[in-house]
Amino acid sequence: MQTSTWGRAGRVTSAVGLGCWQLGADWGEVDPEDALGVLAAAVDSGVTFLDTADVYGDGRSEKLIGRFLAEHTAPRPTVATKMGRRADPHVAETYTLDAFRRWTDRSRENLGVDTLDLVQLHCPPTVVLSRDATYEALDTLVQEGRIAGYGVSVETVDEALTAIARPGVVSVQIIVNVFRRKPLERVLPAAAEAGVAIIARVPLASGLLSGRYDEHTTFAATDHRTFNRHGEAFDVGETFAGVPFDVGVAAAREVAALTPEGETTAQFALRWVLDQPGVSTVIPGARSAEQARANAAVGDLPPLTEEQQAALERIYDQRIRAHVHDRW
Length: 328
Fold this sequence. Notes:
Layout: E1 3-5, E2 12-14, E3 18-19, H1 32-44, E4 49-51, H2 60-71, E5 78-83, H3 97-111, E6 118-122, H4 132-143, E7 150-153, H5 157-164, E8 169-175, H6 187-194, E9 197-201, H7 224-227, H8 245-258, H9 265-274, E10 279-282, H10 289-296, H11 306-324
Parallel strand pairs: 3-4, 4-5, 5-6, 6-7, 7-8, 8-9, 9-10
Antiparallel strand pairs: 1-2
Helix pairs in contact: 1-2, 1-10, 2-3, 5-6, 8-11
């Protein structure tokens, strides 16, 4: 497995991690034993970075990871969680030190750890990222031993750049995939220069880049790909990376046609993410042990050729750019 060293944090993690939103909620039902099987398959395949959040299944994802950690003591992966989306209402005024303590204490209990490896602000209101008090509170959590480090998960390029400028931020999580290329322009170079790790989320555009969907594909009512297509529940960019479904299906067919023999379209798309300078780890989700192993195998695949990179850029420019590039 390819690895990555995080500059400010001094951590070494696998280049392919595991996104654990699917193990909690909003992707249809996942049996607990199947979820534990996904975690085991990923770690056994060399994955050393797990990403979750306190709101994934209202703590279900964290608790499953905590159970896994208790039953599998070595090797122990780095676990990153997130906080902030439990706030009701979700407004800037709720991002206080007292709230941070409550949220992280709950996550520590769910995960069964004294100190959280990494806590990320979970797509907070934009103004939160500009306040000195935000980072002073996060520094206090580090001093108190509740967390070992902190980062942010953001929606926009401008939010990412605001966070990167803060010296205590060790990571920025942002959507990066074949259909979301804007972070390549400024965010990835700025993060690399500052020593900030980039965690690339939604790398398969909610499954579009698996190449398995067509215009007639439907999803469960409990799946965000049904209930959030127009941003009804949260930022629409989190669902299909903000690309209209029919547009994404057509573009994904062109991506599939470029996929080398012996690789899946999903692996090809994940390898593209890993090839982008500045990406520290990519966090595809998985609903089965087989998917987890296939994702982890991307860390051993060869980089894309210049011709493949150029062909994917053309697909983006011709089909996708107009729908997403100026929005985030």
